[in-house]
Amino acid sequence: MKDKIEIGLMGLGVVGVGVENALREKAADFAKQVGAPLVVKRILVRDPSKKRACQPHLLTTNPQHILDDPGIDIVVEVIGGESPAYDYIKEAVSRGKHVVTANKEVIAKHGFELLSLAAEHNVALLYEASAGGGIPLISPLRHDLLANKISAIHAIINGTTNYILTKMALEDIDFTAALREAQELGYAEADPASDVEGIDAAYKLAILAALAFHTQVLLEDVYYEGISRLAARDFRYAKELGYTVKLLAIAKREDNTFQVRVHPTFIPEDLLLAKVNGVFNAVQIDGDLTGRILFYGQGAGALPTSSAILADVIRLAQNMSQGSSPMPRVQMDQTMIAKPISEIETRYYLRMTVADRPGVLAQITRVLGELLISISSVIQKEVDERAQSAEIVIMTHPARERAMQQAVSEMNKLEAVREISNLVRVED
Amino acid sequence: MKDKIEIGLMGLGVVGVGVENALREKAADFAKQVGAPLVVKRILVRDPSKKRACQPHLLTTNPQHILDDPGIDIVVEVIGGESPAYDYIKEAVSRGKHVVTANKEVIAKHGFELLSLAAEHNVALLYEASAGGGIPLISPLRHDLLANKISAIHAIINGTTNYILTKMALEDIDFTAALREAQELGYAEADPASDVEGIDAAYKLAILAALAFHTQVLLEDVYYEGISRLAARDFRYAKELGYTVKLLAIAKREDNTFQVRVHPTFIPEDLLLAKVNGVFNAVQIDGDLTGRILFYGQGAGALPTSSAILADVIRLAQNMSQGSSPMPRVQMDQTMIAKPISEIETRYYLRMTVADRPGVLAQITRVLGELLISISSVIQKEVDERAQSAEIVIMTHPARERAMQQAVSEMNKLEAVREISNLVRVED
Lengths: 428, 428
Hints:
homodimer, Dihydrodipicolinate Reductase, domain 2, Alpha-Beta Plaits, 3 domains, 12-stranded mixed beta sheet, 6-stranded parallel beta sheet, 18 strands, about 35% helix
């Protein structure tokens, strides 16, 4: 039973400032809910001379001022990035401090190791803010859905790409134009690679899938593919076929295997997930008891992220102020096997430019047929008379990825095929 | 540190069977997550001769066989209804047993008293299944959103009425036809009053608002109004005006007051909430940190409800098997004042039939003008030449409910007004 809970805050960027502000402005509320005041004892910053709203004597540039302080109960890590955050978290946990982090990269890469280390030292490592920002996701997976066998997650968990895809769909513009707009509005960074190439979503998916399936998910298990190949015409075809294009993070369990992948995906336009627009995130979960549920909200930003961090801090502080033992942990199986992308089975959308002459469609469909890939529909239009070329769009029935990739490679060898413009997976 | 957790199950209807099945079929999983097996020790039933899947020697018709048994750690109440469930919960809690219940009526009417009693006896009373079925709602409000000041909840929390309203919207049919269809499919009961009149939603709203605002919400504070006055033409006008009609449960906080109300509502058709169709539920929450979030899923049914009950059971059992003190409780203020419906301010949709002659619209708008109700748009069409009548639809700007009700009453006195067909509140 502690009379106050002392916090060491590592990092005072946008999110850190949000957390520090809320801890000051809502101190009375939090003290009431916890049963003891939450006090920020030290704040690790890079540049102590910068003007800030918090008390200047709390600032330090030396991480050991937090890690060495036996009075600090909870370390909140909001530095971001793998290094040095990983080392700080590891040391904090090893020295018996609870840790709350928003660090998706560290948790995705080292979560399993760090959680075991926390268990050894009888402390908690909480990371609600690492995926989905202000949307409760980690805690529902850890607690509220624990009675379920979860079969699938379909998630829009990167706001930047969802903003870009929404723009492309609504304004019929190409990727580069939409990206530029996102950058002007501050929704995309100057170097957008981590968002646009699906890396950010891959981190978050690894975190969610591990909790959903109770197994270790290596970042190397996550297949990811970005959105930069999508063109305005893909959105037009999608619409014509009754689909919306989203960058989906997909995790599925089948018996003793699981698959985790991030890629542009055609989803039926009447799905609630298809209606999630702009920078918003949404995570759809299929459980054997609960059926299909969906969580929606802002996946990034200082305030939403601090909501998640503070929920973790309050949870820990409530436990501490009441003298409880550490929080229950999800027990992991470690026995499930990751299925490589070549082994998955899904439907495909294939767009290509071919020579506009008789017999070409027959050549293409023969390639598919020989690989046992069955066609569900074909659209041929947009003949370019000058170039004597035509555009063909094929939707397949479920096929094995390996076969589909082989088909694409063989089609590429056909003299009549000018370009395979895009291959997009479809989820129904 | 207990070597097994013993459960007394009260009630073996659809939900009880779901819970009992899952506890048997998933016993190994649950034991792993809890650290000790969960054992159903006794089951209270009305008719012990009925054929059932569970072991017959567990059945009893005597509640004292559960309440008097010092070995039983957790009582799961799934009888439903106010009496005798209320008495059983009260006795269980008073005798130091943790209680998990799905009983919205008991929690809405007696939750505050029972939670205080549980606190006195150092046990937990958990009720995740009482609102939103398989959608995690209570736990996110208790834990994950605790750092937020929640300003509003807008919820579709009754599947029966949402099914009926979806049918009316999509098939352009009237209430009675849609209700009949819902009854044929088992989505509405033979006596549909509790659902259709908004009582079920009122219970759930009282529960959610109390947790969101950290205050006692009396059931008497909840204004409710059903959907039976809605006609197919209201849906047509709604669509024309860019709205969808939903039975919304609305809770709003302003300074030291709050309002809680359930009624048919026009909501903008581009809102995610407007796209929640059929028997599905969704709860939209506005928090100061997290911004707008939304939880979506199945609000009823044996499996979704048992998912919520089992989450509560596992949570308690984890705490017990690890020798922890009871779960943190949300501290209630008790200082907020409920605002009566007459004091709310909102926009209105008003549909009426009037005599088709000059000067009638002037009379009507004069009534509104004198009560300082400002009009945002008027539609007049659908003239019935035989009856010499016309239909007028008025959308207002925000107005005080008291003024609007007075306006309706004065319009009713106008000789030219044949009928005030409907008055529906609007949320933007």
